[in-house]
Amino acid sequence: MFHQSVGCCDGSAPMCYPRPEFRVGSRDVYLGDVDDTPFYMSGPQFQYWSHTHLTVDVVPGRGSGFSLEAPRGVRFLIRSRLFDEAEQALLEAEGPPRTGDRDAPSLT
Question: How far are the Cα atoms of 20, 27, 73, 87, 100 from residue 80, in angstroms, in the given order?
Fold first, then answer.
């Protein structure tokens, strides 16, 4: 599963963990799946990024020590752009995103 927390350095990059080894918090927001892999973001980070379209990318470099890509010579990063008016309207019509374990798809 992917998770992006709040903070600087490694905390601002998406990290990939084995599904059973990361506990999703009650305020974590489920954003969707990346190639059948759930992606969560911390609630405070989601508030900051809620007006943007996010793309997870893989680039050469040194990944985080805790993330699965670390020994592979690559790292994950987020690319973003602002939602246009139509995209923003669609998201608002869907209502608030799912949060925490109880609203999220099964991670096992």
Answer: 28, 22, 23, 14, 23
Write out the DSSP string of 11-71: GGS-EE--GGG-PPPTT-EEEEEETTEEEEE-HHHHHHHTTEEEEEEEEES---TTSTTGG
Q: How high is the mean pLDDT of the chain?
A: 83
How far apart CA 45 and CA 30 sit, in angstroms, is: 12
Amino acid (1-letter code) at residue 76? F
DSSP for 59-106?
Answer: EES---TTSTTGGGTEEEEEEEEE--HHHHHHHHHH-SPPBHHHHSPP
pLDDT in tens, 42-78: 998 898 889 999 999 888 887 666 777 777 888 888 8
User: Quick one: how far is CA 74 from the chain centroid?
Assistant: 17
